[in-house]
Design goal:
It contains ten helices and twelve strands. Helix 1 packs antiparallel against helix 2, helix 1 runs antiparallel to helix 7 and helix 2 runs antiparallel to helix 3. It is globular and about 60 Å long. A hairpin with an 8-residue loop joins strand 10 and strand 11. The protein has three domains: 55 residues, no CATH class; 161 residues, Rossmann fold (3-Layer(aba) Sandwich); 74 residues, Ubiquitin-like (UB roll) (Roll), CATH 3.10.20.30. It has 353 residues and is α/β, with parallel strands linked by helices. The strands form two sheets. Strands 1, 2, 3, 4, 5, 6 and 7 form a seven-stranded mixed sheet that branches. The chain binds guanosine-5'-triphosphate and magnesium ion (MG). Magnesium ion (MG) binds next to helix 4.
Length: 353
C-alpha cells in the first residue's frame, strides 16, 4: 500500500534525523506522529514512533525514584564535535583505547565482557573534541538489547579489532551483521544527508526520486566507521600485518594499526575521525570585534551560515538577515552572504539579525 507520506511528515522526519539534542528529537518525533497519514500501511511506523517517544521521554526524565529503571545510563547525551561509539569483539582493547585517548577510568580486563555499560570520555583534536563512548562487546552470539538505542545518538563508529586474533575477519563480519539487525549500517564514508533534503524539497506534483511505495525507516542509522586494528605492539612490522588483514577482509573502511599499550599510532586517530566526519569549524565574530577563536562551532560538511546561527541562538536562526564571512569560503574578506551560504573549515562568521 502506498504510504503517501506528506511533505510535513517528511520534513519532520528529516529534522529528526538531523537533530542532536534529545529534547529537539522528541519534538520532531511528536511532529512526525502528528503528521503521519493514519492508515494500515503506516501502522508499524506509527508504533515505532510511539515507542521512541516513550523511550526519549523516560530518558529526559532521568532515573525514576524507586522505579524499576535506575542504574547506569544506556544512552549518552552527545557532546563535543561528534559522538563516536567504540564497537568490536570482546578483548580487542576498546576500553584500553578509551583510557589512553580520553583519560577515562574504563575497566580494562584480560577477560571478555569486561565492559557492561556505555562510558563517555572526550578525545581532544586541535581545537575540537570528540566524544568517545566505550561500549560492551558485540559477538556472533550476543549484542546488548539496548545497543541499537544507544547508537541512535552516535555520529560515527570506531571499529576496534585485535590484530593478533586470527578470527578478526569473522568477528568484524559478525559485528556488522548484529548491528544491521539493530538497524545500524556501517559505511566507509559519511552518508550524504543533505542529498535527502534536496530530494524531499522537490515541488509537489513534480517528479521525485522518492518512491512513495517504500517507507523509509527513520530509525535506521547509517554511521561512517573507522577501523582501528589494536595490539600493533605484538608485531615488528604492524603495517605489513594490517596489509595482510586487509587482503583477507574486503571491507572498505579506512584503517589504522595502533597500540593502546605503547601509544603507537594513537595520534592518527583524531585526524582520521576529523576527516571521516567531515567536520567543519566556524568561529563567530561580533561586528567591530575580533573573532572568538577560543571555541569553534562545529558543523558537518555542507553546513551553512544558518546552521551556525542555529547553534549561536536556536530561537533566532529564522530571523537571520545576513552574515559576513572571512576565510576559505569567502571570495573576499567580510563578504556579505545569505543564510544558505555553505561554510568551509576555519571560516569566521559575523551574524546580523
Ligand atoms: N598487547 C596489547 N594488549 C592490549 C592492548 N590493548 C588492550 N590490551 C589487553 O587486552 C585485554 C582486553 O583489553 P580491554 O581494553 O578490556 O578490551 P575490550 O575490548 O574493552 O574488552 P570488552 O570490554 O570485554 O569488550 C586486556 O588484558 C588488555 O591489557 C594493546 O594495545 N596491546
Ligand atoms: Mg571493554
Amino acid at each position: 500500500m502506498p504510504a503517501n507520506l506528506s511533505p510535513e511528515y517528511k520534513n519532520a522526519q528529516e529534522a529528526f534525523r538531523r537533530a542532536r539534542d534529545p529534547q529537539e528529537k522528541l519534538e520532531c518525533l511528536r511532529e512526525m506522529l502528528r503528521t503521519i497519514p493514519k492508515h494500515k500501511g503506516t501502522e508499524h511506523l506509527q508504533a515505532d514512533i510511539k515507542t521512541r517517544i516513550k523511550e526519549l521521554t523516560e530518558e529526559l526524565g532521568g532515573p525514576r525514584k524507586g522505579a524499576a529503571r535506575g542504574g547506569p545510563e544506556l544512552t549518552i547525551r552527545p557532546d563535543g564535535a561528534a559522538q563516536v561509539a567504540l564497537i568490536g569483539p570482546p578483548n580487542a582493547g576498546k576500553s584500553n583505547l578509551h583510557v589512553r585517548l580520553t583519560g577515562s577510568h574504563a575497566v580494562v580486563g584480560p577477560y571478555p565482557f569486561a565492559t557492561k555499560f556505555p562510558l563517555p570520555g572526550m578525545l581532544p583534536h586541535e581545537d575540537v573534541q570528540f566524544q568517545l563512548v566505550d561500549l560492551p562487546p558485540v559477538t556472533e552470539d550476543y549484542i546488548e538489547p539496548w545497543m541499537g538505542g544507544t547508537l541512535q545518538n552516535a555520529d560515527a563508529v570506531m571499529l576496534v579489532l585485535d590484530l593478533t586474533d586470527p578470527a578478526c575477519v569473522e568477528q568484524l563480519d559478525a559485528v556488522e551483521r548484529r548491528l544491521q539487525e539493530k538497524r545500524v549500517d556501517l559505511l566507509a564514508r559519511l552518508p550524504g544527508r543533505r542529498d535527502t533534503v534536496v530530494a524531499m524539497a522537490a515541488p509537489a506534483g513534480g517528479s521525485t526520486d522518492q518512491d512513495d511505495d517504500v517507507i523509509e525507516d527513520p530509525f535506521r542509522v547509517r554511521l561512517p566507521a573507522l577501523l582501528v586494528a589494536n595490539k600493533a605492539d605484538q608485531y615488528e612490522d604492524p603495517e605489513a600485518e594490517l596489509e595482510a588483514y586487509r587482503e583477507l577482509a574486503p571491507d572498505p573502511f579506512v584503517s589504522l594499526a595502533v597500540s593502546a599499550e605503547t601509544g603507537r599510532g594513537l595520534d592518527r586517530i583524531g585526524p582520521a575521525l576529523f576527516e571521516l566526519l567531515g567536520v567543519v569549524r566556524a568561529y563567530s565574530k561580533m561586528p567591530g570585534h575580533p573573532p572568538d577563536r577560543s571555541k569553534p562551532f562545529t558543523l558537518e560538511t555542507g553546513g551553512t551560515v544558518r546552521d551556525v546561527a542555529q547553534q549561536v541562538h536556536r530561537g533566532l536562526a529564522s530571523e537571520l538577515k545576513f552574515a559576513r564571512v572571512w576565510g576559505p569560503s569567502a571570495e573576499f574578506d567580510g563578504q556579505q552572504v545569505s543564510g544558505d551560504h555553505v561554510v568551509k573549515d576555519t571560516d569566521v562568521v559575523e551574524l546580523h539579525w
